[in-house]
Write a structure and sequence with these properties.
303 residues, 16% strand, six-stranded parallel sheet, globular, three-stranded antiparallel sheet, alpha/beta
Length: 303
């Protein structure tokens, strides 16, 4: 600031003179107050309430600024004839909640470490599920997101096929899914990543997932089966083979038997997370919390 006098006072609307303070302190105070405000209207109202003669304009957003940012120019006039003007340009951004900032930090660390991508294929099954199953699928995704966020080595999660998963997306609104920090893709997994990197997990696959290779994208079918009927056996395998995607099943033989067509998404994610940490499939399966509580507990027989 190039101001002629270091101790200008500001003229209040009520006619009472504000105590004179150095201009640098005035500017610092205005800057600090402006950062606490989130919109142009609030900024104007608060300045008026404080008794400042101010005008506020909004220049065009500069290149490189975030879309939700509101760039505001504040012009505050000092009292007396020939007095100088204070011009303050602030870029106001809505502060993210602490939980969302923490989730963004977790996702950034997973991205920087090149951790494995776990994608949920939602578009292939949304039309085949009942309304109750769609709601259960949305809850499963919420549990998976929360569980992954608390892992010491989190996966990079992604939701795929959103273009054909409108029912699931609608039910996810109740879980504030738009604030989740993960990948969102309109296309299915085979339209998002190279087919050679995809491993579609299916309980009916012939091959066994012995290890997780670098660069693998593990795909979990986003389906909930309350009916547990034979017509849905091999559903995920059929989807994968129709698009020339290799399939694999978790190595559960000799560890546990499941009297159900498939595991829940949360159980699969927990087993994968345990294996990524320990490298032992037996320990990974036995330590999966989802297999020891409802609804999976009644379908599980331990060996």
């Amino acid at each position: 600031l190039d101001l002629p006098a270091p101790d200008l006072g500001l003229q209040p609307l009520s006619g009472t003179v504000v105590p004179r303070v150095p201009v640098c302190e005035q500017f610092t105070y205005l800057q600090r107050r402006a950062r606490q405000l989130r919109s142009r209207e609030t900024l104007h109202g608060r300045l008026a309430a404080l008794g400042y003669l101010s005008t506020i304009t909004s220049p065009s957003v500069l290149a490189g600024e975030a879309a939700p940012a509101a760039r505001v120019s504040v012009r505050v006039q000092a009292a007396g004839s020939g007095a100088a003007e204070l011009r303050l340009f602030v870029c106001l951004r809505q502060r993210q909640p602490r939980r969302q900032r923490r989730a963004a930090a977790v996702a950034a660390s997973a991205e920087a470490a090149g951790r494995t991508v776990v994608a949920f294929d939602l578009g292939s099954y949304a039309s085949a599920m009942t309304d109750a199953e769609v709601g259960a699928m949305a809850r499963q995704l919420g549990l998976c997101y929360g569980y992954n966020r608390g892992l010491p080595q989190p996966f990079r999660l992604a939701l795929c096929g959103l273009r054909d998963a409108a029912p699931v997306a609608a039910r996810l609104e109740a879980h504030c899914w738009r604030s989740w920090v993960l990948g969102r893709h309109e296309e299915p997994p085979w339209g998002t990543w190279p087919a050679a990197s995809l491993v579609y997990l299916s309980a009916d696959a012939e091959a066994t997932l012995d290890r997780i290779e670098a660069g693998d994208v593990l795909v979990i079918g986003g389906v909930v089966d309350h009916a547990n009927v034979a017509s849905r056996v091999g559903l995920a395998r059929g989807v994968a083979e129709a698009h020339a995607v290799r399939t694999a099943r978790l190595p559960l033989d000799g560890i546990v038997s499941v009297r159900k067509t498939s595991l829940t998404c949360l159980a699969v994610l927990q087993i994968l997370a345990n294996f990524a940490e320990s490298g032992d499939w037996a320990a990974a399966v036995r330590e999966a919390p989802a297999l020891h509580c409802a609804p999976m507990r009644k379908y599980v027989v331990w060996h």
